[in-house]
Fold:
Amino acid sequence: MDILGTIGNTSLVRLRKVVPPDCAEIFVKLEWENPTGSMKDRMAQAAILRAEQDGRLRPGDTVVEYTGGSTGTSLALICAAKGYRIKIVTSDAFSREKRDHMAALGAELTLIPSEGGLTTKKLILDMIEAARKLSREPHTYWTDQLNNHDSIAGYYSLGEEIWRQTNGEIDAFVHGVGTGASSRGVATVLKRYKPDIKIVAFEPAESPVLLGGQAGPHDIEGVGVGFIPPLWDPTLVDEILPVSTQDAQDMARRLAREEALFAGTSSGANVVAAIQVAKRLGPKAKVVTLMVDSGLKYLSTDVYGIK
Structure:
């Protein structure tokens, strides 16, 4: 087996201490067990493989992407394993650890300045435009994650694993929305097995665009791009919950100290939303959410350190 064979088949564990009494059981999938410490390894592998298969990506080509870091790190891993050059557009809004990780795997970085280190709609659009310019160079493949349907298929395996690991005993799946690919991929599989399962999405309370509100700056990396992502499929989602940056960060710290689960801010937000769902469903139900990535990616941020 090579490194790419280690992607997927991550553990599922039950939360013990942060869940209030009389709630449904909450289980979390430890996606940091993937090689780069993030669930994004799944979509990166699918996106590159499918582009190779249909000739969009050929030997000697360069891969280009805009990213907050996790997708870029995952793509850099795949490219390092397969021998492609990769150029990444990112920003100082995202953790230094992510930028360093991408560079360590051979990515060439272009940094777009942010407004006070926050994720905003303008920042995302500026990053996309910078990637678009790089993609015009010859022998270049732009993965374009916000529009890439191949990435959805990368998360079918995640849905299959959740169904198998819960023995089909799952009442709700809760997860945040960045590109929309992961929630869509998992929901597609779970709804096929159990049509009445509740699929619940969260978005930053400061930027509730899926709920019909205004885009705003927030500090939950990897979600809340400030507009409705093209891959978003509202027909698969039963409810959308807002979660604030502060609540997400507080829960990430609690998970580390009380559950010994060291995760990023979006994972904290997943658990905040999952608890809301679990309170309503009651003690006989089971809710699953994701530990999206490792807290090691955020040591320099104001979640765990000094920004």
Remarks:
- The chain has a mean pLDDT of 97.
- The chain has two domains: 3-33+156-298, 40-145.
- Residues 265-281 form the longest helix (17 residues).
- Residues 73 and 100 are 9 Å apart (CA to CA).
